Every structure is written in C-alpha cells, then in structure tokens.
User: Fold this.
Amino acid sequence: MVKAALASVVIMICLTGMSCKETPETWNKKAEKALKASKYEEAIRCYKKIITLDPNDMSAHYHLGRLYQREGKLDNAISEYKKASVIVPERKGLYNLLGELYLAQGMINEALPEFKKALARDADFAIAHYNIGLAYKQLSKNTAAAKHLYEAGLLAFINGDNTTALNAYRALEETGPERIVQELHEMLEPLLEDETRK
Assistant:
C-alpha cells in the first residue's frame, strides 16, 4: 500500500514537471515522436538536449547531422558527423557520409580521405569504392577511378546492391579502359538485360 502511494506521488511530481530527472532516453523518445510528426525543428532541439546531457551520445550527433543535412546546413552536418566518428571511430558509414558531403560541395581533397577511412574499416565497402571512383574521375585520374569503380560494381553485385552495381558500371563506361568495362559488363549482363526490358 505504501509503495503504491509512493509511486503515485512520484508520477504526480513527474507529470507536473517539478523534479523529474531528464535523461537522454526521455529526450530521445521526444525526438522520435517529433520526427514521426515531421516536426524537424523540435527534433533538432531534442537531439541538442541529449547532447547537453551526454556529449558522447553518438546516436544524437548522428541524427542531428542527418537533420542538418536534410535542411541543407552542410557545415553543421559535417560537424556532427565528425563528432560522432570521434566517439565511435569504427563506424565506416560515418566516414562515407562525411565524404559524400564534401564531394557534394566539390571538396574532393577533403572527401577522399574520408572515403579511404571508410575502406580502412571495411575493404569490401562497395559504396565507398564507388565514391572514391567518382572523386578520382572528377580529378581526371582515370586509372585510379576505373580501379575503384570496377571494385564497387563487383562488390555491389555480389552483395545484391544492384543500384550501386549499375551506377558503378555507368561511371566506369565513361572512364575506361575498355577491357575492364567489358569485364564488368559481362558480370552485370543479367542486370543490364533486365533494365532494358523495363
């Protein structure tokens, strides 16, 4: 009986906001609710609150970065992704995201090291190979571009990522050399035939 009365007092205090301790978990639930309702500014506020409560919350930095990226605030997104990658340096996807943001801004020399960090964590990361290929292509380093685009097409095909495989093939077609283009074409032939039938 006493426990039930005590529990109801605690609930009343929490409901009135008098002294409930705010936790990252409670703010994360608020952020998720805001995202579901497409209230992005509210979600940003929630993730910032999580970071004030726990500066090492990698997930909050990541989600905040995604929201900034969505709003076109690329410098803010880069900053948050960098913070997340320091907290959890083994996350290959964070480096790839950073590289993509740099590449989208034409900052190829900043993008390449990020993609290479992603590959250092997973040498078979097809999308990182693809992005490196695109970066080298922009620098007119066609031999290096072809190597990575071929690798991206092969790995993506093996892993069932047909979109990346076909994108890598198309980029490779523009770069050459013909021998490598033909080799990848032969592997992707079923995908290419399916595509022409659609």
The domain at 119-198 is CATH 1.25.40 (Serine Threonine Protein Phosphatase 5, Tetratricopeptide repeat).
